[in-house]
Design goal:
Distance between the termini: 95 Å
Mean pLDDT: 85
Low-confidence stretches: 109-113
Strand content: 15-25%
Number of strands: 4
Strand order of the largest sheet: 1-2
Length: 116
């Protein structure tokens, strides 16, 4: 009977934990792909990191793999530009005229609740 020699990292990882590690890597890769597909931005980034630690124990080497998925970050809100006008905030630049002729201020609903 001849000894099976493994020289391929991917073959060794496929055998790791009786194939369960390969299943875990595939599942994590699928999570990254799904998160990228569902991401609202045109450009997003995900990362799949594989780490393999080797430990020599006498005449044997133990190989311990790990996988980590980093999903694309979701932005909760984008910034909104405001300008300071007369001690308050405005979304209209003070040196530009209003192109649309509509109201340039949003009513402050809390104003009636403030003490006079």
């Amino acid at each position: 009977m001849s000894t099976r020699i493994i020289r391929s990292a991917f073959q060794a990882l496929g055998l790791s934990n009786r194939g369960r590690f390969e299943e875990k890597v595939n599942a994590e890769m699928q999570r990254v792909i799904e998160a990228l597909e569902q991401h609202p931005e045109e450009k997003a980034k995900g990362t799949l990191t594989l780490t393999v630690n080797f430990t020599k124990l006498g005449d044997r080497i133990d190989m311990k793999p790990a996988v980590k998925a980093k999903l694309p970050e979701e932005k909760d809100f984008t910034s909104t530009p405001f300008w300071i006008v007369e001690g308050g905030l405005s979304v209209q630049h003070p040196s530009q005229s209003d192109m649309f002729g509509g109201p340039s201020e949003v009513g402050d609903r809390r104003r009636s609740a403030e003490p006079a």
